[in-house]
Protein 1
Amino acid sequence: MTDTQQPPCLIALPGNEPLTRALADQLGADLIDLEYRRFPDGESYLRLPDAIKGRRVALVASLDRPDDKIAALLFTAELARDLGATRVGLICPYLAYMRQDTRFHPGEALTSRSFARWLSAHMDWLVTVDPHLHRYGSLDEIYTLESEVVAAAPALSEWIAESVVRPVVIGPDGESEQWARAVAEPAKLPWRVMAKTRAGDREVRLEVPDLSDLEGHTPVLVDDIISSGATVAEATRLLLEAGFPAPVVVVVHGLFGPRSRELLRHAGVARVVCTNSVNAPESDIGLSRLLLPAIDRLV
Ligand code: R5P
């Protein structure tokens, strides 16, 4: 039997088991267990069954906090090939290191390019969700593997329509315009974008556009990422100051750095919701249905 006559094999990297099970069920793929542990000295031990010989393999690994995860991922990809997998791809709902897309200061590492080279050297294909494409037009500018980008906007739009009364979608900075527009326009919701200047990792200044015609609406802050929480917290402060009710925050990737949740609570957000691209208590918006067609094409 050729590899395409057999179902693909899905392998969860540690922490990605729930999404992997959901995808395997819907794709009719075989779930393969990765045995993974750390030796006492901190190095990784990995083992896969010989049964992946001659099979197509998809690894499932979301890469939030990537420095703890990348070694295991690259070891697993090499092991799968060593054991005879014919094609090895990566389902990576959150793709890390996309924000270091330029040298903001002389001498800084262009980690987006280094990271893209590492993944491209080990994988045949990549499916990801809303990577932070700002100064790069597409993943192909830095990745040399086959890739597909899945947009979470339809799922965010649906959640907002079901959960928020009279919403106005607000992107907290210029970079979020693409997400605000994609969420608002298909649902025919009003939308606006703020302007941001970043003064440091946790310090931002925002300018609010004219919102005078939107009285009586509930602001919904839509962005791709919450990291320090500074962007959304400052946007919330300004919306409350402008007399709006507490905003609902809807983001694709909830990275939630240290103290970000306290910051958001103190700023006065009504609720924070994100997709399950990253496992977090706020991950109420499922992505598996949106991921399936792209995986099906590339696997
Ligand atoms: C900006 O590049 C992104 O779209 C987000 O606005 C940003 O990453 C959020 O970061 P933080 O939560 O640290 O303000």
Note: The mean pLDDT is 96.
Protein 2
Amino acid sequence: MMLPARHLLAIEGLHQTAIAGLLDLAESYLLLNRSGKTQRDLLKGRTLINLFFEDSTRTRTSFELAGKRLGADVINMSVSTSSVNKGETLLDTAATLNAMNCDLLVVRHGQSGAPALLAQKVDAAVINAGDGTHEHPTQALLDALTIRRAKGRIEGLTVAICGDVAHSRVARSNLHCLTALNARVRLIGPPTLMPAEVARLGAEVFHDMAEGLKGADVVMMLRLQRERMSGGQVPSAREFFRFYGLDAQKLGLAAPDAIVMHPGPMNRGVEIDSAVADDPARSVIAEQVEMGVAVRMAVLDILARQQPRLA
Ligand code: NCD
């Protein structure tokens, strides 16, 4: 299979067949990982740099693990956001990375579009690991793989994405990914945390959680991203939980076999109650993390194969 570009910067614009191809490859890596076999020759001699300008636990660790499982040399660079002058530092950093002959560059940045800017300046294949409120493509891919494995399909499912949609790159990437795969997407949240532009991307918007959850096959909760909020946008945690937090009672409105997802990190008692987050019959939150490694192995593999320098 092939991806249309040298980099993975967004899900928007990816065709259904490219997404399905990535999920199939990820699934083969999942089975390999579970069987304890390794594939350490695939990225042997290649350098993967994790460049994180924002905090991360799952994403950075799983890219590191994915790279190592495929035999790459993995370097983690953590950069504190507060101390950098974005434009200048990014371009300086690009020059440094080029001099190091980095093959694969995984970038997380607080500014939407920063990975795309870097991609113009480096020889490496760039993977967006989350940029501002824009996109987080590998998260959407791991979510799609989790759904596909739990439900056997994605087409025709109703997926409710709930909470702080406005600040969520996870929501945006999932919206593109799930609609490309012919799922129905509902977005649920207070008007203050619901950007106007999402409705025109083909989602149904709900401000009443009970309405939005009705009959949903998948309930995906989002973290309340206070670090991206200003003044009046910040609701009190208690109030938010009452109207938009997922508990067993609200989950009862979804389909009887609905699964519960959360990209992490979770704020228990703010957007999700522990009783549902930790319910093994409904929650696939741990599976999402496992799929994250497999999906990132697939992405690294495909982009390395497509890189002219590596061919
Ligand atoms: C998300 C992110 O960073 O966009 N986390 C993740 O990658 N699993 C979601 C979040 O921060 O709430």
Note: The radius of gyration is 19 Å.
Protein 3
Amino acid sequence: MLEARDLMVFYENMLALNNISIKCDDNQIVGVFGANSAGKSTLMYSLSGIMLDIRKKEDMSGGERITLTGEVLFQNQNIMDLKPSLRAKAGIILCPERRRLFKESSVLENLRIGGYLATKAQAKYTLDYVMNMFPALQKLKNRLGGFLSGGEQQMVAIGRALMAQPKVLLLDEPLLGLSPLMQATLIKATKVIQEETKISIIIAEQYARPVFPIVDYAYILENGAAVMEGTGGELMDNPDVKSAYFGVS
Ligand code: ATP
């Protein structure tokens, strides 16, 4: 489904991704875990193609030189040079870090904006689906994005991404800054969404602990390199992971 092979990204001479190979198969939830600055967002931008836009912007403004090497494959085709809009059209949808809602637009407008790639029928169906998945949004329909709590914003961000009809959904740090209760709600919803829609999901998180139980497979990133990988169960049993993520040795 979606795969990175030997991916390297440099910001000038700074190596942000060091020969990363990761894979998300059909119908899977894959975790990418790592501390601040491990390279999670760089990986998500490279998979969604936004890195090409960032590179272009930097080139045009005479800013920093960004270099990408390796391959990104979607359904076995190399899409390394495919622009982000076409990747989105093909079904690779990023739900970005810090949600990035349109703060001056209502919840409903934010969701509808996500549906620009969908047919009318798909948009209607998905909007109903999102409202059922996150009932809290029903009474907030007309509230502006800027006046929502972090958890509500994250629900809208996931809903907006679903409106774009993903085949693979990239969730970049969806739990950032949320309460444990809200984290649990979102993780449970992520699992249910995957089971019901069969969308593949890649979830990048610093807070691996609540996410481990729902992943089929996961990678641990350190300084831009994947230093460990395995099924959720394998990693949870690994002593190094236990001491790093669960505070036990
Ligand atoms: P966080 O949890 O803080 O978002 P992350 O795991 O997503 O971290 P990245 O944002 O991918 O990590 O950053 C990886 C490394 O690349 C970091 O050292 C970061 O400082 C650096 N970096 C990210 N973006 C740029 C940029 N535009 N220019 C230079 N260095 C960058």
Note: The CA atoms of residues 17 and 238 lie 24 Å apart.
